[in-house]
Amino acid sequence: MAVLVADEVSRQYGDTVALDDVSLSVESGEIFALVGPNGAGKTTLVRALTGTTEVTGSVELFGEPPQSVEGERIGLLPQNFDPPERLTAREILDYYSGLYEDPEPTDDLLEAVGMDDDAETYYENLSGGQKRRTCVASALVNDPDMLVLDEPTTGIDPAGRRQLWQLLEGLAAEGTTIFITTHYMEEAEELSDRVGLLADGAIVALDSPETLIESYGGDSLLYVGGELEESVAELFDYEGSLGNGQLTLRNVPPNEIGSVVTTLEASEMTVDSLTWTDPDLEDVYLELTEQSVTQRTADGRIAVAGGEE
Ligand SMILES: Nc1ncnc2c1ncn2[C@@H]1O[C@H](COP(=O)(O)OP(=O)(O)OP(=O)(O)O)[C@@H](O)[C@H]1O
């Protein structure tokens, strides 16, 4: 059942088209991630979906305009959310809990976002990541049916980010519908059921991470270093080339890597190194947003095109 339906939603600020006929729907209990470059329109879409900005087209949340939905049912974390600086993390959550009839216990929320040890610290003295954790918790005080989080994990360290993913996955498993925006492709890939890619105000791709990677991620690459003959690529049926003393083969299935080595050794070549890379959501993102200014190298470093490694 679709909980959230946007149909041909557009929004313009003066001459700037922030949203251009965006249509999407989010199912009950689904985790939907919206990704896209800076200025693509993500925050504007979050605002449109939660009824905090005027748009053309239609948005329905739980079958009604978002402005009409009972506040108890929605948890919203805006991108720029600044609680009072001179309240502690605990006091902030107590404050927001006071707005609802049956709030979640503050101690449970603090623990869920990993803030139990810093609960008595003033917001102004928290680190960036601790502030963001507190803000995420404040969107959960009413145990909402629909959670909309605009860049929830920005500034949070990798372990904390994973802790929040688990928390969100747990909520979704219990039926909470979750819509997040993120600049972390790993987050979108690991966490979400479906990903929408927004560019210049329009949805340019929308599907499960796996399907997007299959459709747009490009080839897996096997890099082989060693003492290799000029004609080495001809030994294989895979598309391949030799450059800088390294053989690159495209789309070698992982279970065939051994036979590549065997073939090379049978031809009396030695293999010193093997690296296999699989496309991921970041490749999809770069492909579809044409931001291919960087490219992966065999050892996983990022090389800047036209620049120094
Ligand atoms: N209140 C506003 N007044 C004028 N223009 C705005 C306003 N809000 C957003 N815009 C413009 O609309 C476009 C989309 O902005 P938006 O904040 O939705 O992008 P975003 O994808 O959330 O970006 P980011 O990843 O940087 O947060 C941008 O060109 C932005 O300059």
TrEMBL record:
Entry's Gene Ontology molecular function annotations: ATP binding
Domain of life: Archaea
Keyword line: ATP-binding, Nucleotide-binding, Transport
Keyword presence, Cytoplasm: no
Domain ABC transporter: 4-225
Keyword ATP-binding: yes
Family note: Belongs to the ABC transporter superfamily.
Protein name, per record: ABC transporter ATP-binding protein
